[in-house]
Amino acid sequence: MKNLNKPLKIREELQNQEKISYASDIIALPRGGIDCSEGCNPYGFPPSLEMAMHNFDIHRFGPYPHSQAIYEGLTEYWKGYSNIERDNVLLSDGSINALYTVFNVFNSKGAVVLGISPQFTDAEMFIKISGMEYRSVPLRKERNYRFDPDEFIENIDESVSLIYIDNPNNPTGQVISLYAIEKILNRAIEVGAAVIVDEAYGDFMPNQNSSMQLTEEYPNLIMIRSLSKAFGLAGLRIGYVIAPKQLISYMRKITNPYQVSEFAREMGGEALKHSENIWKNIVDFSTMKREIRDVLKESGNLFMPESSDTVSIFLLIHKDETVDLYKEFLDKKILSVPGVDFNTLGKNSVRIRLPRIEDFDLLLNAIKAIHLG
Prior knowledge:
- There is one protein chain.
- The protein is α/β, with parallel strands linked by helices.
- The chain folds into two domains: about 10-45 and about 275-370, Aspartate Aminotransferase, domain 1, CATH 3.90.1150.10; about 60-270, Type I PLP-dependent aspartate aminotransferase-like (Major domain) (Aspartate Aminotransferase, domain 2), CATH 3.40.640.10.
- Helix content is about 30%, strand content about 15%.
- It has twelve helices and 13 strands.
- The protein has helices spanning about 10-15, 50-55, 70-75, 95-105, 120-130, 150-155, 180-190, 245-250, 260-270, 275-295, 325-330, 360-370; strands spanning about 35, 90, 110-115, 135-140, 160-165, 195-200, 220-225, 240, 300-305, 315-320, 335, 335-340, 350-355.
- The strands form three sheets. A seven-stranded mixed sheet has the order 2-8-7-6-5-3-4, sandwiched between helices. The chain has a four-stranded antiparallel sheet with strand order 9-10-13-12. Strands 1-11 form a two-stranded parallel sheet.
- Helix 4 (about 95-105) packs parallel to helix 5 (about 120-130) and helix 10 packs parallel to helix 12.
- It is globular and about 55 Å long.
């Protein structure tokens, strides 16, 4: 390979900003252990999709994707919550790519993005790598990491271009009320800021708490969702943005018209017809989370910050800040996400995604051993 006479003109942010992310296409699962790290649904996709997959005509892989099934599925799924039209929707390669697209719409010189800490790491990293300024309001230990909308609103000023909040929160699994979201939207309108509500885990909470109900009222609201989590289709990479038509038109200028494959569009549309499957899974998640809470009621080493029983992820923190909690769980054959991968968290914390209920004993015994040991 030839040597460069002069260095390539790579953006300074890419050269200087290290990317911290727990997302990886490699899984180092201990032998005999269980994966409690990836945020996908351990129960997989709705069983009814198997027949739809079997019947899919593979000759449709030849042309570019044109299936409207995903749009039809979204219209049906959100009936009664918002009257969305096709021009209110942008499809994407998972919700993470949707975030990248939206951030690029607002990526102007000096742009400030306001968020909370901890929350989805890759969003924060992309903001910084893009050259924007990221400010965050911490979830406080003295409030059990519960989101405080009033404190957050105090930080929304004229310098803020964009607000980013994931709901349910990743990594705590807490659900932020629709009332709090609406308060933030109203303050954001006053300063001309857009609000991204990242509902990647939103299908684990009732649709009544989704910001989808506010999309027709607020011109500054951008909602992002994914079929990777509750719908169990992470491998198909299906995400979508719901926003005012004008904002969607800006996003389409910086993305390609063939986002999401023909097969994924068809399967996504079919999956959206079977959300009842998710609530069957939620019954198990709620049962498991309550059993964990019962263990943690005893005096011991661990505590769980604010977290909804219906959401499949949660955070555990060891009271001793010197403990490497990720290693403690790995030694007990539980793969988790290290807390250090999230802003403001230390090595004494981990994010855990609940397993199938038949694998739960291994996780519960590990928690008992660490908590009471």
